[in-house]
């Protein structure tokens, strides 16, 4: 994939997962507030989606 294609896929995934508004925010540490717990969960799913798996198992609704 070209850099432009990668950027397009990442941008599309950010939009699909509702993560656009927190894309530039740090994830956070124990002393620095970052993204919320729900955003962290969606980020983990988005990272897996970026690999374009044929099948993705999720254990929560």
Automatic annotation (TrEMBL):
Belongs to the ABC transporter superfamily. ABCG family. Eye pigment precursor importer (TC 3.A.1.204) subfamily. InterPro entries: ABC_transporter-like_ATP-bd, P-loop_NTPase, Plant_ABCG. It comes from Aegilops tauschii subsp. strangulata (Goatgrass). Residues 8-61 form the ABC transporter domain. The lineage of its organism: Eukaryota, Viridiplantae, Streptophyta, Embryophyta, Tracheophyta. This is ABC transporter domain-containing protein. It comes from the Eukaryota. Keywords: Transport. One of its GO terms (molecular function) is ATP binding. The keyword Phosphoprotein does not apply.
């Amino acid at each position: 994939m070209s850099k432009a294609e990668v950027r397009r896929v990442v941008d599309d995934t950010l939009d699909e997962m509702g993560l656009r508004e927190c894309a530039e925010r740090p994830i956070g540490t124990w002393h620095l507030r970052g993204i919320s717990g729900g955003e962290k969960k969606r980020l983990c799913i988005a990272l897996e989606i970026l690999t374009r798996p044929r099948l993705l198992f999720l254990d929560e609704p």
